[in-house]
Each structure stands twice: as C-alpha cells, then as structure tokens.
Amino acid sequence: MTTGSDAKVVITQPAAPVAEDGGSWLTYVGHGLPWVAAIAYYFLAPSDLTFGTQIMCWILFAISLDLVLGYAGIVTLGHAAFFGIGAYAAGIFSIHVCGDPVLGHLAAIAVAALAGLITGAMILHTTGVTLLMLTLVIVSAIFEYANKARWLTGGDDGLQGMKVNPLFGVFEFDLYGNTAYVYTLVVLFIWFLIAWRLVHSPFGRSLDGIRQNPRRMRAIGTPVWWRLLAMYTISAAIAGSAGALSAHSTRFVGLEVLSLLTSGIVTVALILGGTRRLYGAFVGAIVYFTVQDWTAKISPYAWEFVVGIMLIATVLFLEGGLMDLGRVARRLANRFRKPTGAT
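Now predict its structure.
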C-alpha cells in the first residue's frame, strides 16, 4: 500500500521469524514440547517445584519484554518496574484486602497495566537513548519510593505477612509448591496463547512495520503512537502477572523485584533465547537459571562467568539466540553433506 513513491512499506521479516509451515507434524511437536516438558517436570522433580515455578515466572516476564523490545522495537531497561508493581500489588492486596490468589492476581494485572499506560503515554513520544534513559528513571523512582514507603512495602526488609488462601477454596499453596506450580503453568499457557495470537494478528504485523520504519507507517495512516502504547500496556500487564505469580508462590516481595539487576537479568535471558521468538523466552530463562543454579553450587561467582561467556558467544555467533542452533546445525549438515551420486 502506498501514498507516493517514497511511502512504500516493505516488511522484510515476518512478525515471528521462526519457520511455521502449519501443516508439518514437526511444527506441532515443537509447539507441544515445552508444555509436555513442563508437565513431565511436575512428576519427575516433585522436590524442585519451587525452582520450576520461579523459572516459569521469569519465562512469562521475558515474554512480556519480548513483546515491547523484540516485536515493537521499544528499547527499555526499566521493565522490572511492572514486574515489581505486580508483585507489590498482589502482596499488598493479600495483606490488606483479600487473600484470594485469583483476585489478587487480577488486581496486580490491572495496576501494572495502568502503570504501563501512564508511563508509556509519557515516554513513547521519544526514541533512542532518551527513551532508554526515561525507562531507567521510572524504575529508579519507583524503587526509591518502595524503599522509603516502609509503611506500605516494608522497605528494605521486604513485604512480609502475605496471606494466600486456597486456590478456588480447594487447593492449598503447600510448602512443596504443587499448587503454585500448576497455577503458574496454566497462567503462563493462557498468556502465551494471547501473546501468540497478538503477534500473528494484523496488529502485530503493523507493529513489525513500525519497528522497521515508523515514518513510513505514519505515511500510510497507521496510528504509530497509539499502537506502541497499546503494546506497552499489554506488556506491562503480562509483566505484572509474572510478578504476582512470583509473590504468591514465595509469599514475600523484596526490593530486588524493582532493581536494575532484575531488568538486566530478564534482558540477558531473552537475548540468550532469542528475541522476536516467543519460545526464545522459554529457552533463555531455562538456560540462564539452570546454569546459574548448577554453577553456583561450584562457586558463588562461577555462574556469572559462565553466563557472561554464553552471552558473548550468542551475540557473536547466533544472531537469533539459542533458538538459532537448529538452523545453524542444518546449514552445517547441508554444507558437509555429499551431493547425491557422489563417490
């Protein structure tokens, strides 16, 4: 669609660069593998369900970041603001209003979405370094408020005393994390379906065009700012949901949920897995926290070195993150495969 010789928009890449041939049985197997693995983990590692729950919370957090950073092209290092707001909202709701986890979760999503709408309206008129710095300012300001407002957040001691009632009045949040794990898995699946449908919709395709060339998208009449704001708000809601799940599963919220380190961790996990690929959030978060857990048992600082080496190697050799390993392997196999009929 054009409005002149210079207004032509060419979207060089689809919204999701992963090959999707729809009819291939391998495609369906690939889609089902993460969920089958998550269900299998529940039965094979009953003593580590708390660890698995936290990984799923970070997967959901990474998906929310991928929507704004990968698909919409909004560069941010302050996404922990919405994760932390969701966690604190869920915790405060459970202490002062009601201990029902579903109501607390919905309240956290609403508060995080509202925060995303307000802050997005303020900063999305800018781009580049200015936008990046504004995201840092916002998360730093919220961090300082949470630190000073001890009467509300507990300050540097953290928010304690959370009450989490049985889910639907039946399923207790036990110490082994059975209910928390299943609940988090279901919520992750629902949000994943929403995100998948979103990025493959005309709305998602238009965001891909905005990411590549916002001026040309404006030239054909696309409401660029409104669509960026909509995606930013949705992403904030998903991040808030991840924070609420983390708070309910641990029954504690500390200041670190609002720290720059939290934003850095989710960014590293997403880059490791691969941006603009929703399953990249799964791969990145699992690899990051598994490596951290295993290597930390060897040395408290060994995991930082190992993750750093992995990140450097990924950036240098795997443009699409670890999700590109399969494509690279196929290319190498094709290169070294003998031509048909060769002796």
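The mean pLDDT is 88.
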